[in-house]
Amino acid sequence: MAELGERLLRELTYRYIAVLAVLGALAVLSFLGITRLTAEAGGSAERVNLAGRQRMLVERVAFAANHLATRHGGEPSAAADLLAESLDMLETHGAEILGGAKGAPPEAVLEVFHGEGWHLDRDLHDFVAHGRSLLTRTTTVATDDPDLKAISAAASGALLDALEEVTLRFQRDSEGRMSDLMALQGAALVATLLTLVGAALGVFHPMVLRLRADIEDRFRSARDLRESEERLWRILEESPVGVSVSRRSDGVVVFANTRFTDILGMPKEEFVGSCARGHYVDAKQRSSVLEALRRDGHIDDAEVEFRRKNGEPFWSLLTIRSTFFEREPVNLAWIYDITERKVAEQQVLLAAKVLDTVTEGVVITNARNQIIFVNPAFTTITEYSRDEVVGCDPSILSSGRHEEEFYAALWNQLHQNGRWSGEVWNRRKSGEFFAEWLSISVIRDATGLLTHYVAVFSDITHRKEDEERVWRQANYDALTGLPNRSLFLDRLTQAVRQAKRENNRFALMFLDLDGFKAVNDTLGHAAGDVLLQQASVRLADCMRGSDTLARLAGDEFVVILQGVRGREDPAVVAGKILEQLARPYQLEGGIAHVQGSIGISIFPEDADDGPGLVRAADAAMYMVKRGGKNDFRFAGDPKG
Q1: Cβ atoms of residues 598 and 511 within 8 Å
Q2: Which long-range contacts (CB under 8 A, 24 or more apart) does 532-539 make?
Q3: Are 453 and 365 in contact (CB under 8 A)?
């Protein structure tokens, strides 16, 4: 019995060992097969997740790129950061789908990336290239930028369809692998039950743990996807651009971020659930938008007028894209309030019209004093067209009639006070001089930095000519062109002041033509006028540039001789005058002869003021006439 028991025990042991061996082999084979299929199924599930993220990233890139077009210069915006991050993730996930630790994807997926009719790999590469190109922009991205259009077109077209196809093929591959896994599990279970149900119970414990781990992985993947979606919605919620989602079927709003409701001036709870079509400013505006949607399927940066809750209308840039939200077709809308910009544009247009209609010339230069704008009046006054002067220095108008000190003082006052105004002589394109009244102002930015100069000027040439003409009529003799009594008295006063200030002398000559009345009586007043003109020329030839020759009235003339040392200097001049006057005069009616009588007074010996000098010289002149004429006499000479 002992041997039998021992033999039975040995046989049972052998059998048990055999069963265990078979069970172990089945377990090993089942474990290896299950492990491989589970790993492949898990990798396929992760790729499904990655493919889904690629679609989301493409939409995020399109959103960021479109938002980038709304920035206004300065440092890169949050949209640029979002765009760069999304492009990096798009490339990284693309590489993980095609290879990496998970190995090559199924042939059906590779066909979408490289096969005929799809070329997803090339399309993704072009899409990323367009995004990278936008990031290199140093100025504001235009809404019609080719790269921006390419991104928007790809994000709403074949690229998303291809990514959707990749996701579906990965899902089908994952489902196939799961079917294989379940078949292998069933076969192992049947084999194990046939061999030893009791012993087989311990074989499936590792498999149960693995299945639990796989399920937990799936739950983690789903949780990560849900968190990713929540992050995306948080991004939309915190976007500085208004974002809303409305159902295409009935137009009811199912999502709106805070910025959108702030723009409309109503609580989010009131806006969500309302009809998106009811917020346009009027039916005409609403019909225009709906017609564009039906025709094009989307709207890009259209200027649309909405109405706030309080009834106030406002302008916005509207972009609408068709997409899906919770598996339902929706319209994704972005709005950007441009009311202030529209007001500013209207003000700029008004200012431009004013500048085009004013008669004053307007010139705007940059900080380097290079012309960047002129109005039509500038061309009318200067004869230069806009194209001829833009980029040039305003000095091209310089006449050369002002000294360097004049311009130095101008710039000094301009930089100290921020403005300057005064009369300036400039030159037209034809070379003609013209006078202008010029006002220049300095323009600074909010930080105080000088950015522009604005000059406004009017042509005052005719006014200056009129002033000059009036002044000459008031101060010069119309017949001879010599200074008249008014200008003579003014210069005599100046001569007295200067002589007192510098302790100098000057002489005053009072001259009367002898025989002039006879010329008028015999040859006529016209001949007398000609004689006076010729006599004026002869008298001027005897003067220096610093002296003053004036006609008081009729045939009376006066001379101011500056800087005389004594009686010798005026005596020499008087002798020349008498000699010149005594020469015959060729007149139309015949030859005339006149002479001169000259009285001379000297400052300060004969008088210390102008009227006194005139009286003294006049008295001396009459002494000459009584003494025989054609001579000169000093006021201080004794009678004889």
Answers
A1: yes
A2: 532/479, 532/480, 533/479, 533/480, 534/585, 535/581, 535/585, 535/594, 536/480, 536/481, 536/482, 538/577, 538/580, 538/581, 538/583, 539/511, 539/577, 539/580, 539/581
A3: yes
Strand partners, 323: 330
Query: Is there a domain that residue 89 lies in?
Result: yes
CA 16 – CA 196 distance, rounded (Å): 10
Cβ distance 381 to 459 under 8 Å?
A: yes
What is the C-alpha separation between 597 and 599, in angstroms, rounded?
Answer: 7
Phi then psi for 288, rounded to 5 degrees?
-65, -45
Model pTM score: 0.39
CB atoms within 10 A of CB 26: 18
CB-based contact 354:363 (threshold 8 Å):
no
Query: How far is Cα 582 from Cα 522, in angstroms, rounded to an integer?
Result: 18
Confidence of residue 512 (pLDDT cuts 50, 70, 90): very high
When divided into structural domains, the chain yields a total of: 4
Structural domain including 223 reads 2-234
Structure tokens at 578: 């008498």
Task: Name, of 28-32, 312-316, 622-626, the range with top average pLDDT.
Answer: 622-626
The answer to whether 626 touches 639, Cβ cutoff 8 Å, is no
The last residue of one of the domains, among 465, 489, 523, is 465
Look at residues 255, 237, 228 and name the one whose alpha carbon lies nearest to residue 54: 228
State how far the Cα of 408 lies from the Cα of 368, in Å rounded to an integer: 16
pLDDT of res. 197: 59
Query: Which CATH number does the domain housing residue 105 bear?
Result: 1.20.120.1730
Integer-rounded Cα radius of gyration of the chain: 53
Measured CA to CA, the distance from residue 240 to residue 569 in angstroms comes to 92
Residue 330 near residue 246, CB atoms below 8 Å: yes
Both 480 and 595 in a single domain?
Answer: yes
Of 234, 267, 291, which one is at a domain's C-terminal end? 234
Q: What is the mean pLDDT of residues 389-406?
A: 91
- Residue 61's nearest CA partner among 34, 77, 79 is 79
The CATH number that applies at residue 588 is 3.30.70.270
CB 607 within 8 A of CB 600: no
Model confidence over 577-601: pLDDT tens digits?
999 999 999 988 889 999 999 999 9
